[in-house]
Amino acid sequence: MAAAARAGFRRLFSVSAFSPPPPPAARPAAEPCNNLFVSGNYAGLSKRTTSDQLKEAFSKFGQVVEARVITDRISGYSRGFGFVKYATVQEAGEGIKGMDGKFLDGWVIFAEYAKQREAPQPRQHATPSTPPSGYQ
């Protein structure tokens, strides 16, 4: 009888009716290109990583045309990601193989092909014939 009571107690407080949310969909991989997106684990690149350091680290794998760490406008520190542009797609692939999962400034970094930026959508402005919303 005690076993039946325990089973009923377990069923009463069971969370089996709860279904966990589906796992996030895998991001589609970007098409191979000569531009790489470089980021880090959790917090991103080190706050002290500079564009010159990024260029120096990736230049071991091909001709780096441009390397840029995206920085905060106010503090000037890294926002945690950057871009490396190689002369060719093949060199970019070598850069990914050589630097993905490696350390830079004491932080593990990740390198992948950058996705093409979508063209910005023009903003929709209210036409003068439509009354403004809110109080009149």
UniProtKB/TrEMBL annotation:
InterPro entries in alphabetical order: Nucleotide-bd_a/b_plait_sf (IPR012677), RBD_domain_sf (IPR035979), RRM_dom (IPR000504)
Keyword Ribosomal protein in annotation: no
Biased composition (Polar residues): 124-136
Domain RRM: 34-116
Region (Disordered): 117-136
SUPFAM superfamilies in UniProt: RNA-binding domain, RBD
Domain of life: Eukaryota
Cited SMART domains: RRM
A GO molecular function held by the record: RNA binding
The entry's keywords: RNA-binding
Protein name: RRM domain-containing protein
Source species: Eragrostis curvula (weeping love grass)
